[in-house]
Design brief:
Alpha-Beta Plaits, five-stranded antiparallel beta sheet, about 575 residues, 6 domains, PARP14_KH_1, Nucleotide-bd_a/b_plait_sf, RNA-binding, 19 helices, RBD_domain_sf, alpha+beta
Length: about 575
């Protein structure tokens, strides 16, 4: 067990001496000789380091524990210092206890990695287990073994897999890159910690002045540069014992990098153009580019050199390609995609996202239904977003606000991608709202709307688009499809009824004004009604286009009879 004990809820009037005396009193605390006390009066906590290993276990058996009349909390302190599992340490130390081969020349489609591994574990290969297999190129792997005899056995043979002769050679790892003497990589920085607070803390613990900081993509990480070489081991030990705003800082060396990141270049500038530029000593002062990787989405390009000294040369020059000046800075893999130089660990709430050109009927569906508004906000809640519906106008725009807070885990990282995520999520949600449109004839619209009045539900709205003689059904896909089927049936029945009435119109009788007058005189309507079992004819109107329904033959016969009578002797 650790020699260190963490004590919290210490009375505010307690002194460091009082703590020391208490924990050296075996009868009262179970403690023993104290090597060091690191007392944080501001947070009422302390790290007690004992001289012997078994003291902490004795103290823990005495809990609950009273100190100056108040209960204090004690626990074994195991600082989360970086160990050999950290990627930078692994890179520096290498993996010295292995022997490896570099294998290439095979067809990756015919020979997957597992097949390659099984081959070299068989009698045809080394006849021993492969410790690990790492892909280093498109069709090249490094295979690691525990003993050098395995490598010797492999190299004495020729190897053929998948119908192709393999190229096998001993792999000698490159020497580890050196470490920066004036830089440290830090994990565990609180989001509430300012740059000044961090610098003051580091200076007090290292006796060196911090002069620069780059915040990493991962929450709470930063790379700090000092004016002189700090004692990194001493700083690491000090940060195990004392917190900064409640957090223990993890301190580690920083491996010298051979990579830069270029930002702010013209969007049309290609990866090849940047590679040619940075591989020209005449243009940028160096050459020897080994790798170029473009990130079009973020308008970034990562460039690696065979000589890590090239990085400082490039970063100390100005650069211009395709008529645009752009920035270049050192890239450290441990920082991920670091924050901009203008940013800090202070959380900055993203601006609201404005979703424009929302479908008219989808907008109405959301605006008029509190239930649907609630559903949408429930969908957005895990994405750290919400819509304030009270401020939404009928302009087919939706404003989505960010609900992230500085206390949320990885808040800065989430904030960085928040806008793009919300644009995508809103598009997905709106695409799930279905708009179904059913056409009908103008004469049927009023009857149809009366008939379907009771079909409205909380999850579906029905509207009358009179301008286009259309019934609009908006809602979730399944519900709108069900209601659309019902409304289609109603429209069909009403239109059929109207068609049947229209079928009674057999012809159109177009009369002249004087003919209309004569029909009035001969009491045509009364006679028509008697002949047709009381069915009322249409009214006679003095126009040139009167329309008479149903019985054109009767009308025509009366007209002919009148014509004959008027033409008699």
């Amino acid at each position: 067990m650790s020699k260190m004990l963490r004590v919290s809820k210490i009375p505010s009037d307690a002194t460091e001496d009082a703590l020391t005396f208490f924990f050296e009193n075996t009868r009262k605390s179970g403690g023993g000789d104290v090597e060091e006390v690191d007392y944080d009066e501001e947070n009422h906590t302390a790290i007690i380091t004992f001289e012997e290993d078994d003291v902490v276990e004795r103290v823990l058996k005495k809990t609950p524990m009273l100190f100056q009349g108040k209960v204090i909390e004690v626990e074994a302190h195991m600082p989360d210092a970086l160990d050999d599992s950290h990627p930078d340490i692994k890179e520096a130390e290498g993996d010295g206890n292995y022997f490896a081969i570099h294998v290439s020349g095979f067809d990756t489609e015919k020979v997957p990695a597992e097949t390659l591994k099984l081959y070299f574990e068989s009698r045809r290969g080394a006849d021993v287990d492969v410790n690990s297999l790492e892909k280093v190129e498109e069709n090249a792997y490094i295979l690691k073994f525990e003993e050098e005899e395995a490598i010797d056995k492999i190299l004495k043979k020729t190897h053929k897999v998948g119908g192709k002769q393999l190229t096998v050679k001993r792999y000698i790892p490159p020497p580890p890159l050196p470490k920066y003497e004036d830089k440290v990589f830090i994990k565990g920085v609180s989001s509430s910690t300012t740059k000044d607070s961090l610098f003051n803390f580091l200076e007090a613990k290292s006796n060196a002045e911090p002069i620069d900081i780059i915040y990493g993509e991962e929450e709470g990480t930063a790379l700090v540069t000092f004016d002189t070489k700090p004692d990194i081991e001493k700083l690491r030990q000090q940060c195990k014992k004392r917190t900064l705003e409640g957090n223990y800082l993890n301190i580690d060396h920083v491996t010298v990098t051979n990579t830069i990141v270029a930002t702010g270049f013209k969007e049309t500038t290609s990866e090849e153009t940047l590679e040619l530029y940075f591989d020209s000593k005449k243009k940028c002062g160096v050459d020897g580019v080994t790798k170029v990787k473009m990130n079009q989405q973020l308008n970034q390009c990562f460039i690696s050199f065979d000589d890590y000294n090239s990085v400082d040369i490039v970063c100390n020059r100005k650069h211009k390609v395709d008529g645009v000046e752009f920035k270049v800075r050192i890239h450290q893999e441990c920082l991920g995609n670091p924050a901009d130089e203008s940013q800090s660990l202070q959380f900055q709430l993203p601006d609201p996202v404005l979703i424009e050109n929302v479908d008219k009927w989808k907008f109405v569906f959301l605006k008029e239904s509190p239930e649907n508004q609630q559903k949408m906000n429930e969908y957005l809640r895990p994405k750290h977003a919400r819509i304030n519906w009270s401020t939404i106008n009928m302009d087919e725009k939706l404003e989505v606000a960010c609900t992230l807070e500085s206390t949320d885990k990885d808040c800065r990282k989430l904030a960085k991608a928040w806008s793009a995520v919300i644009q995508k999520e809103m598009s997905t949600y709106l695409s799930c709202i279905n708009v179904s449109k059913l056409n009908t004839i103008k004469e049927a619209m009023e009857d149809v709307m009366k008939e379907i009045e009771g079909m409205h539900t909380d999850s579906v709205i029905i509207r009358n688009d009179q301008e286009n003689n259309t019934i609009v059904i908006v809602g979730q896909v399944v519900e709108t499809e069900k209601i659309s089927v019902k409304i289609s049936s109603v429209i069909k029945d009403i239109e059929k009824e109207i068609d049947e009435k229209k079928s009674q119109i057999e012809d159109i009788f177009r009369s002249k004004p004087y003919e209309t007058s004569i029909l009035h005189c001969i009491r045509f309507q009364e006679q028509y009604s008697k002949k047709k079992d009381g069915v009322e004819p249409p009214p006679l109107i003095d126009t040139t286009d009167d329309i008479y329904t149903d019985y054109y033959t009767t009308l025509d016969a009366d007209r002919q009879r009148y014509t004959l009578a008027s033409s008699g002797p």
